[in-house]
From TrEMBL:
Organism: Acrocarpospora pleiomorpha
Lineage of producing organism: Bacteria, Bacillati, Actinomycetota, Actinomycetes, Streptosporangiales
Keywords assigned: Arsenical resistance
Organism domain of life: Bacteria
UniProt protein name: Putative arsenate reductase ArsC
InterPro entries noted in UniProt: Phosphatase-like_N, Ptyr_pPase, Ptyr_pPase_sf
């Protein structure tokens, strides 16, 4: 592992932060992926967020979190299956609907299943009204962040739930898809988001029952 990353587009602090992230991921995926694979996923994840980051100082952390998810997905694709179903929620901005769906899924399923989310044109930050409406239900999604999807994430998912991304949503043969028609919470008040939130909860509960996932 190098002592720093020599990239002209990074500050010294960002280089050191990415080095720390690479070490963290190296420990997590030791024996599963090579250092080269881990660094490639980390750097491509960083580049995906670089143009939209509201706070550049958070970029290495976002890159590490997304690279961790992508590497977990790749391991699943390559045969490291722990038996838990994975559901991927996709919408346009990954700032409202898909984040609320993932929040409900994770809260209800606990460790019995896995939920991921992504957007076709992912936003720079999560919808504040979505955060507030979920907080009313005791679910904190404020630490989540909009993100794109990648091939390995889609391939690893057992079910892909789309919400308004239309033709922009990826289609893989043999993959199970569900399309949920839901209003977009973008620009809406917390009061107006509540009915959307409640409908998402209803659908998530129905999906968990169909997947035979115990609900907390």
């Amino acid at each position: 592992m190098p002592e720093t990353y020599q990239r002209a587009d990074l500050t010294v602090d960002q280089q050191h932060a990415l080095l720390t992230a690479a070490r963290n991921l190296g420990e997590r995926f030791a024996g599963t992926f090579s250092t080269e694979t881990i660094e490639r996923f980390l750097h491509t994840s960083y580049d995906q967020f670089a143009e939209k980051a509201a706070i550049p100082a958070f970029l290495p952390l976002l890159a590490e979190r997304f690279a961790r998810q992508r590497l977990t997905a790749l391991a699943r694709v390559e045969g490291a299956d722990d038996g838990r179903p994975i559901v991927l929620f996709l919408c346009v901005h990954n700032a409202g609907r898909s984040q609320m769906a993932m929040g409900f899924f994770q809260h209800l399923a606990a460790d019995h299943a896995v939920a991921w989310s992504g957007g076709s044109e992912f936003a720079s930050e999560i919808n504040s009204a979505a955060v507030a409406s979920m907080a009313e239900r005791g679910i904190d999604i404020s630490a989540e962040f909009p993100k794109p999807w990648t091939e390995e994430i889609i391939r690893a998912a057992d079910v892909v739930v789309t919400m308004g991304c239309g033709d922009a949503c990826p289609v893989y043969p043999g993959k199970r898809y569900l399309d949920w028609e839901l209003d977009d919470p973008a620009g809406k008040s917390t009061e107006d988001v509540r009915p959307i939130r409640d409908e998402i909860e209803r659908r998530v509960r129905a999906l968990l029952a169909e997947l035979k996932v115990p609900v907390a």
